[in-house]
Amino acid sequence: MSGTGVLVVVDDNEAVRATVAMLGGSVGLDVVEFASVRQMDEGLPRDVRGCLLLDMRLPGLSGIPAIHHVASNYPGLVIMVFSGHADARTVVRALRAGAVDFFDKPFSNQELLEAVQAAIAGQAEAPWHGRPAVTADLSVLMRTLTRKQRTIVEMYRAGLGERTIAAKLDLHPRSVQRHLQNAVERLGVPEETLRGMQDGDAEGQ
Predict the structure, then answer these.
(1) Strand runs labelled E in 60-112
(2) Distance between CA atoms of 123 and 49, rounded to whole angstroms?
(3) What per-residue confidence (pLDDT) applies to 73?
(4) Pairing state between β 30-34 and 99-104
(5) What CA–CA distance (Å, rounded) separates 159 from 151?
(6) Phi-psi bin for 170: left (phi > 0), alpha (psi -120 to 50), beta?
(7) Poorest-pLDDT segment among 1-10, 60-69, 101-110, 192-201
(8) CA angle 74, 80, 86 (to 5 degrees)
């Protein structure tokens, strides 16, 4: 395994592991695959450096405890998680546990690959001092919303009123209110504070 160019994927879905291996290999990364955290512990050196893609639902050690385990035992790995069944609260917990990014399944191959490359490049450019500090990024939480909810929230944060948003999206104002309320509940922040929030402000709300 070479320097900072190691991509580790832990997922019990063989098709997901194959996709990640193909993506990593396409840009010259060494890719190591495991079906569980236990297999990872048995086959991966603790001083490895690189990026880990960790599924949130695994046989054996899984979810937030798995993130804590990896963060404690593999300080040279930047942790990213993905799941097909996570809400905003789970995303916040994952970020606070030590993950730096979250991806829904099915994920965008390009978006995932760019995030992995950025994480590995960041390690190569800076001296190794262990895992960087993590804050819950609103932009990551926004990915848990539906496309329509995300659009309405972005317009609301830009300062547009509900009636203006309704007119621009050809929706009834009550529909905008409902979508906004549902989005606010998923993000876990009060509606009155949402308009002034910037990326990175979600933690602690």
Answers:
(1) 77-83, 99-104
(2) 8
(3) 95
(4) unpaired
(5) 13
(6) left
(7) 192-201
(8) 125
Q: Which residue has the tokens 């760019």?
A: 114
Please give the domain boundaries of the chain with CATH numbers for all domains. 6-134 (3.40.50.2300), 139-194 (1.10.10.10)
> What pairing do the DSSP bridges indicate for beta strands 6-10 and 30-34?
parallel
- Burial degree of 49 (CB within 10 A; 0-12, 13-18, 19+): buried
CA contacts within 13 A on the Cβ side of 179: 22
Q: Is residue 40 a contact partner of residue 8, using CB atoms and an 8 Å limit?
A: yes
Paired with 137 in beta bridges are none
Sheet holding 30-34, edge to edge: 30-34, 6-10, 50-55, 77-83, 99-104
Query: Residue 72: what residue type?
Result: S
For 49-81, the pLDDT digits (tens) are 999 999 999 999 999 999 999 999 999 999 999
Q: What is the pLDDT of residue 159?
A: 86
